[in-house]
């Protein structure tokens, strides 16, 4: 009994000490977050259950409409930024309020997921007392709700008055539309701000991202001489397009796979006697027979890197590998820039220090900057050259971009609390 009383006293003293580190106003913010949590969880379910794969323009717009209503309700001025029809993207949601108090904040989310309409759809499901699953539940519909719930708690306490905050939700973060128009407005509004906070998936309650890798895409095509399978490897026929593509991909793996922060992934491959691949739709169709040597293969992949130098060096090596063709084959590779890298900076480190300070004041423990090699690319990288940035402030979980993606439901309200206090302290 004495040990139990000691434990209870220790816990009570700890909670009291943490509360003393928070001002009376901050304690009210935390109380509002807790009070609102049932509504926040209900909103998350609604968002997850709305399919919004990047190419599903109607679904992306529906998710945007749901969030737009919520931002209108807390006094933000909202607008929908449409994209050119040829881009085949839904557009972006922007919510703004302007004032003169504290730093000007640029908060980043996105409306789309990687799960397109032709993929199996999974709705929000509570698996146990600490885990939920559903498409985009942590990447990044959970993060969108973390941002919104933090702002709602501040608004309920009159703490958004006279602040300057832009919440920007892109509609094609997972598969950015081609052309400068895709992010022109995004970058312009970021330049008007002092600090960017991005709500991509958190690595956990104790980690944030001061650096992120960039991403680009590549298209590999190989060609061979069609013929009967019994003649393959003969000097006048050669090896065919499929063997040539296999050679290239394997050499990529052998020569480049051990470099720190560099990854490359062939995400789609089609080959046969008849090949049709539509880049814009990320869709391929193929026909062939085992006794026909394939004359064509198309491969689509991505390349991730920390710096522009690393990107260019990798591309040079890949081009050299592609040029060393098997007999009677040829190959070509093209690259497309998507997102630049976000290197760590002193300003970013200061924001990580703020997250650490807030977390400790809340009694959650320390926060450190995570390994950039463990993260993919994000929209925050596009504005990292203009202002201090911090990412990984969203929901935590596992398996993003894969069936069975999960959300840590116990950490979810704590991450909202941390975000709310960070925004509050930055805007004082």
From TrEMBL:
Superkingdom of origin organism: Bacteria
Domain Peptidase M20 dimerisation span(s) in chain numbering: 210-329
Signal peptide as annotated in the record: 1-19
Chain coiled-coil ranges: none
InterPro entries, alphabetized: Bact_exopeptidase_dim_dom (IPR036264), Peptidase_M20 (IPR002933), Peptidase_M20_dimer (IPR011650), Peptidase_M20A (IPR050072)
UniProt keywords, alphabetically: Hydrolase, Metal-binding, Signal
Pfam families xref list: M20_dimer, Peptidase_M20
PANTHER family noted in UniProt: ACETYLORNITHINE DEACETYLASE (PTHR43808), ARGE_DAPE-RELATED DEACYLASE (PTHR43808:SF32)
Protein name from the UniProt record: M20/M25/M40 family metallo-hydrolase
Organism expressing this protein natively: Hymenobacter tibetensis
Lineage, top ranks: Bacteria, Pseudomonadati, Bacteroidota, Cytophagia, Cytophagales
